[in-house]
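<goal> How does this chain fold?
<sample>
Here is the protein in question

***
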Amino acid sequence: MSLLGDQSAAEGPLAEVKEQSGRRIEEARKREGITQRQLAKDLGMGVRWLREIESGNPKARLDDHLRCAYQLGMSTGHILIPLLFAGQKMTFPRQLAYGDLRELERLCVETIAQRNLEQLTQALTPNWRRLAAGGM
C-alpha cells in the first residue's frame, strides 16, 4: 500500500499526486473558461502534453503540474503537501485532498518561517543578552 492510499507500492506516491493534480488542473481550467489549446499556448507546451498532465499520466513531470497550477492561479498544496507526508513516511489523509489547500499551505509556510526566524534570532543574540536574560 502506498503512503497516499490504495495504489500499489510499485507506482508510488507520485502517481497519485499526479492523478489528483491533473484533475484539479482540468477543473480549474474549465472553471476559468480556458481551453486546453489556450493554456498549452500560454505555457509553451503542446495540447497533447497538457492532455497527458490533466489525465494524470505518471510520466508527466511535477514541474509541468506546478507550471499549470501557477498559470491558473491555483494553490500548489495539492502537490506539495502530500509529498511532505510521503517524505515523512506518513499516510496523507485523503480528506485533506479535497477543497482549497491555500490555508494549509500558508500555515506550513508560516511555521517554517517562524522556526527559521527563532533560530536566526537566537544565533544573532549576543551572549551577554542571553546571560542577562537567564539571570546570570
